[in-house]
From TrEMBL:
Superkingdom of origin: Eukaryota
Domain VWFA stretches: 332-415
Protein name per its UniProtKB record: VWFA domain-containing protein
PANTHER family: INTER-ALPHA-TRYPSIN INHIBITOR HEAVY CHAIN-LIKE PROTEIN
Lineage: Eukaryota, Viridiplantae, Streptophyta, Embryophyta, Tracheophyta
Species this chain originates from: Aegilops tauschii subsp. strangulata
Length: 426
């Protein structure tokens, strides 16, 4: 599918050579790695997968390709394109909002952008496709799109057919490949603006005492409109919720952020500037929380009217601190693992790998157990097991056999079981 996508964009870039932009200017010159026809050479083909949120015109009739304002009077082109070509649309506005919550280990990203259908005559229309690359372990949260008087938004639906609303399956949205989300907007008229608000979440990384986030934000040169016609304003807002009342130290950032305010555990940063070209590098940000001792907290998030699941959620987190001389105390750890059907695939594998690592790093003399739950409850042992080479090996073998994602979710039973295990050790 990625090869088909790249080929369609290659065809679209060739078609865009027919355009005469306002003022009689030619289309932007191809960057290094493209041949003299404006198409990528074999070595640069991988660059056609988007590395920032993008919009494309889905063109089946090449004769419709023209500037909406200044006709180019190019020779007529006969025939139709199958599969369609994808012409990258020029972007007029962009705003990036990032909310980092250390306690949830997630960054919630909101991108607000305006594209315009600059490559189709005003007498014609075509579908337009939005493609969003997401960062580490990205998950789409929602999208709202407005074109003229028409509005579109995404919804979470019950794919098992139990929803009271009849769902008609279409190919208007879905996953292009891992970490890419696409959404098709039908029948956009040449010259119209596409206003989009796209939200997704991705993993907030933690390594060597630093939290960091890396968001795809590299726009190719051909999405830049002519600077004399459009003033390009780039805006990035960043909110950091450390979750603890400790000092937060900025370690690095890709864009020039200014700290605006600090309110308790929250910090607010802003970058706003008129730019000649849209960003050509990903948005990256890293910070650390200074603490001489172990610290942590609890984050609670209430459900909203737009949530498919109306239950509240919470997150408990601990930060190790910077005290390297701290005496390590003996631990008794119970790992509670959700093995319901929603954990199928990569999630259950990630949990298994994480617990295998955690159990292997426990010290001899520590105690542990593993409890899994779905509709039923299963325990590695009936009591807390003392850590040694044999019990660690047995635990990993047990996880390989019993970490099977299926069934529903009943969390109260394992919580009760943990309270019972506190009083029993091997």
């Amino acid at each position: 599918m990625e090869e088909d996508f790249e080929r369609a964009v290659e065809d679209g870039l060739r078609l865009s050579k027919r355009l005469v932009l306002p003022g009689g200017a030619a289309p932007p010159r191809p960057h290094a790695g493209m041949d003299r026809y404006g198409a990528p050479d074999a070595a640069a083909a991988s660059s056609l997968l988007p590395v920032a949120p993008m919009a494309y015109a889905v063109v089946t009739d090449p004769a419709a390709v023209d500037s909406p304002d200044v006709p180019s009077y190019q020779p007529h082109v006969y025939g139709r394109l199958s599969p369609p070509a994808l012409i990258p649309l020029q972007m007029r506005e962009v705003e990036l909002r990032v909310d980092c919550a250390a306690g949830c280990a997630t960054a919630e990203v909101t991108l607000v952008a305006r594209w315009w259908l600059h490559c189709l005559t005003r007498s014609r229309d075509c579908d337009c496709r939005l493609v969003v690359p997401m960062g580490e372990e990205g998950s789409i949260l929602g999208a709202e799109v407005t074109v003229g008087k028409k509005s579109y938004n995404t919804h979470v639906v019950d794919v098992d057919g139990n929803s009271p609303v009849k769902i008609v399956k279409t190919e208007s949205g879905g996953i292009l490949k891992s970490q890419f989300f696409q959404l098709t907007i039908p029948q956009v008229v040449g010259g119209e603006d596409i206003f989009a608000t796209i939200r997704w979440s991705q993993k907030l990384l933690y390594d060597n005492g630093q939290f960091s986030v890396d968001i795809p934000f590299r726009f190719p040169h051909y999405v830049n409109p002519l600077p004399k016609l459009f003033t390009k304003k780039e805006k990035i807002q960043l909110t950091v919720n450390s979750g603890v009342s400790k000092e937060v130290l900025l370690q690095g950032t890709s864009h020039p952020l200014k700290e605006k305010t600090r309110q308790g555990e929250k910090l607010f940063f802003l970058h706003e500037a008129v730019v000649e070209n849209w960003s050509i590098k990903d948005f990256t940000f890293s910070y650390s929380v200074y603490s001489g001792d172990v610290s942590g907290g609890v984050l609670v998030q209430r459900s909203t009217l737009r949530d498919y699941d109306d239950r509240d959620i919470f997150s408990i987190f601990l930060l190790p601190g910077n005290n390297q001389k701290r005496k390590i105390f003996r631990k008794a750890v119970v790992f509670i693992v959700d093995t319901s059907g929603s954990m199928q695939g990569k999630p259950i594998e990630n949990v298994k790998n994480a617990i295998s690592t955690a159990v292997s790093e426990l010290e001899e003399g520590d105690y542990f157990n593993i409890v899994t739950f779905n509709d039923e409850l299963h325990s590695f042992s009936s009591c807390l097991e003392k850590v040694n080479g044999k019990t660690t090996e047995n635990a990993i073998n047990w996880m390989n056999l019993n970490f099977v994602a299926q069934g529903g979710t009943d969390i109260m039973h394992p919580l009760t079981e943990v309270q019972y295990l506190e009083n029993y050790t091997s």
